[in-house]
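Structure tokens please, single chain.
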Amino acid sequence: CQVGSFIRLIVLVFFYSQNNSIKTSKYNAFNFLPMNLFEQFQRLANAYFLFLLFLQLIPQISSLAWYTTVVPLMVVLSITAVKDAIDDVVKWLPGPLADILLLSSSEPYSLTYIETAELDGETNLKVKQAISVTSEMEDNLKLLSAFDGEVRCESPNNRLDRFTGILIYKGKNYVLDHDRLILRGCIIRNTDWCYGLVIFTGPDTKLMQNSGKSTFKRTHIDHLMNVLVLWIFLFLGSMCFVLAVGHCIWESKKGYYFQDFLPWKEYVSSSAVSAVLIFWSYFIILNTVVPISLYVSVEIIRLGNSFYINWDRRMFYELKNTPARACTTTLNEELGQVKYVFSDKTGTLTQNTMIFNKCSINGKFYGVVYDKNGQRVEKTEKVDFSYNRLADPKFSFYDKTLVEAVKRGDRWVHLFFLSLSLCHTVIPEEKVEGELTYQAQSPDEGALVTAARNFGFVFRSRTSETIMVVEMGETRIYQLLAILDFNSVRKRMSVIVRTPEDRVMLFCKGADTILCQLLHPSCRSLRDVTMEHLDDFASDGLRTLMVAYRELDNAFFQDWSRKHSEAYLSLENREDKISMVCEEIEKDLMLLGATAIDDKLQDGVPETIITLNKAKIKIWVLTGDKQETAVNVAYACNIFEDEMDGMFIVEGKDDETVRQELRSAREKMKPESLLESDPVNSYLTTNPRMPFKIPEEMPNGNYGLIINGYSLAHALEGNLELELLRTACMCKGVICCRVTPLQKAQVVELVKRYKKAVTLAIGDGANDVSMIKAAHIGVGINGQEGMQAMLNSDYAFSQFRYLQRLLLVHGRWSYNRMCKFLSYFFYKNFAFTLVHFWYAFYSGFSAQTVYDTWFITFYNLLYTSLPVLGLSLFDQDVNETWSLRFPELYEPGQHNLYFNKKEFVKCLMHGIYSSLVLFFIPMGTVYNSVRSDGKEISDYQSFSMIVQTSLLCVVTVQIALETTYWTMISHIFTWGSLGFYFCILFFLYSDGLCLMFPNIFQFLGVARNTLNLPQMWLSIVLSVVLCMLPVIGYQFLKPLFWPVSVDKIIDRIHHCMRHPLPHPSRAKRKHASSQRSAYAFSHKQGFGALITSGKTMRAKIKRKRQL
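Here you go.
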């Protein structure tokens, strides 16, 4: 477990002999090479090139040298392997971490205080206690080392809230439960040392059992490319078959009688055998239809776009000096296709801190600052608390009138803060004089006690019978007579104390809906004013409590105390009797006022969620926290809104109840979805076991869904999972509370399994690792709950608000660029390769190439690589400002509109058309043509150069039309590559090079002679015009006749650029009435019984032992 201070632990590994280490990486030194190669060859193109390599080793069919394939294949595999290794190294997390059985601790009765935020998202303090037989060993190392107990317990499992076992020690059996176990991921607080016995280690710990397995994440475009490569294989095979048949016919009718001039090889016995060999020869020649450089280019593009994320200054968090980080480079374009975001709450949406924001005391509102003109001031100087030497320096408040009231000695203000300093179960710690640390069961209590401390009422220490408070510099001791603690029914807490003046006082705080019923009739007018203030607090999204007091008659209290003791000791209906006794004394209360705590959201969270909702991204909150707290945060974040048409709460405790609750919700949202004629129901009836994707179902309004972990366990089983999914996906927002880490992953997997959508999970703690791994994209927040989430994530940053830039800017750009790249890349290679197909009909199907060998080598490597990389790294349809201002631009990526099977077919048809133009226009131009001197120019080499130059001009103009954002680099890459081609042309076809290496460079003087021909330039101009006319026409007509929403938005952006709009105002946080008194409704049973029992006393009698 992690520790907040130095904790000595003695651990004895007895349950397993395995390694006590945990790693979150996927590879190790032994499995890296085979596992990585296996993953890479899952790409069909890589497997295809491996097969092609084997073909090229056969001399009878090889028309190209073997090294033309093996070298680029090795480069591709090596680059990808190095990148994967680097990605994996940053996820390495070693550590001897374990679940331990608590044996003893420094605290009285071997209590140990822990935080479990990393496990369940809760920040409140919890208590663990060792069994008495082991606690007696304290920190005596001799006794501990001689400990020979035997533990028999359950097998490793993922249940964070359950543990069963037996300790056999000195011939006796002791029952062990969850309260004795400290899990990996807990943070120990307020404890100097503790000793424990290791139960589960390494991957058997409950936290790791919930973490899920590391999987190889591949984008939807990767999967699509595999399908398309398979299509291309079939297309390639079909072309090779057609050409082989043509070769067989040609050889039978002409080649057979032409053997005197072109004899058959000795291994060719017939035209059929020759056709079989030619099939494979063309298979090799036409392999560029799927060039291996495609995958190298994809990796470079992804790497470049990852650097943009790392370099984004607007995603740099100055307070922690942490930049955004792309932990993987393979998922960038997936960021532009996200439909569902699954978010943790604590530390992800919230800052994990509570701040005392406003209060109402005796009918007066405090916490808002006004100027001389009565206008509200947002920013002003902080209140100076220097008069109080025990004040917390981190506490901030801005309304000076409250401090003035304290200094003035206002009776009601003093009584209000005295109540806050006494009515709680906080445990103080003061290791250094004057430096107080409060360990509270909830952050709300800590915030209230800290506020009282700063305003001069300092809770200093406590015992089981007394509370010490420093009031305006004077130390006063209050006798603690009773604590009436919070529970889920009472929704309030009271303390009864005897003041130094011997007055018996009851102080109470709780939900206003409860306390209003307990007030004295004389408080009616004050109650009305305070309720108005509470309405203001709630509208600002603050968590409220009402505060009251009552002075008790001593005789009445003594009589009540006797009844309370009898109720506490009763064996039957104890809770009900205690509640009835408490109601006798908690009445006729005098109202003091109300508090308002800000459940501090991270900066920009509400605005971010509004923006994501406009982008049609659905937000689901998966948290281990309480329902009320999660719902209030959902309202504060704008996941839920007051204007919603309905809110569904699923809290059934059995399958049938959960089913009815889900179906009734669906009936209200879309009644026809329950009919047998519904398409989804019809499909399920006819194909109950067939996997399928559920289409989007539109509800008749905006709705929200809340479901707890117990009900979710039922909903995730059997046929109910589809009921849950269909209901949840119709809702605008979904809150799953009290869920385990494994349930988080199961919800994500459910959406992945049945919805054709990209999922993203974001969290900051170890309890979020499972869903981060399960989602298509995992994002880790660098928060206060450790590094596990970041180390297991694909992307990491420090603030939730950066998510909108990650998706709407980097994600959208990456998706758009990748789609443009793929469309262009397939097009240019179809146009390049299919010219061979047409040429075969004029070359006797002899597997002769159209182009010069060096042009084939450099086409993808040099001539066309930089322009497409420039497009894929720098192109923007709109800048980042418009991307964020019009989130609707994100929608095409969610539906994968820019590159899909339909777009691929368009690329193929465009490539076929261009290849026809590029072959037949030069053919017609040079056919029966002569030079000015009468010599023919229709030779193979001149024709080859005309075709390849026309091709390069066409694809260059094509990429220029595709580019929407021109930079100097874009111009250099695009036009510079074309110029480089003409420069290298003279070098490769120079006299000197051809004379030195005549077998390698065979186009002697072709460049010099052909570039002078008017026929060549006529061919280039005609080819470019004929190839570009359909493209320009389509781009012009498409917005007119087949407009999509993005076209209309782009038009709006162009209009706004000409007529600027005012900048959008900051979104105001909206909240529902349930936000009020959220603390009282969500607070669990406190430490009241523990405090009054005396077990928290710091003084401890040391027992002497003789060893």
